[in-house]
Amino acid sequence: MSAVLQMPQLDEVLVSDAVAEAVATDTPTLDVLRRRSGLDPLGLSLALAALFHYRHLDTAVLAGAAPAFDLLGPGECARKGCVLVRECGATIAVITDPFNAELRMWLEARVVAQFDWALAALPDVTAFLARHEKSVRAIDAALQSANTRTAGS
To answer: What is the pTM assigned to this prediction?
Structure first.
């Protein structure tokens, strides 16, 4: 007998109550919703993606996507809790908090390319950035070494 995986779900009442509490207590809505729902970061991200009709990118999908650091650098991504990726020629803004309207407006103003929206769990975005940060550092080190050798010639 095979087990059927249940998609975590949120109802509109729970979300509405969490938004109201977040506003009243000046707490991020995602934090209130995580506490009230009892879902882990991945479960909450999946449930929010389903509720708000966002595409969800998990660890495996993110691993196959290319970072778009030419549009938004890794430092900015880390500070904002988002990342831009390219997949099949499309640019995707991957956010972890669909309630963060300021971030969405900032991305729309900051990024010159057309992009689609997707959600991912914060640990997945953090892991993606950490994995690619190592690559960026290695490239920077190689460039610095090449520049040092060129300057010495």
So the answer is: 0.81
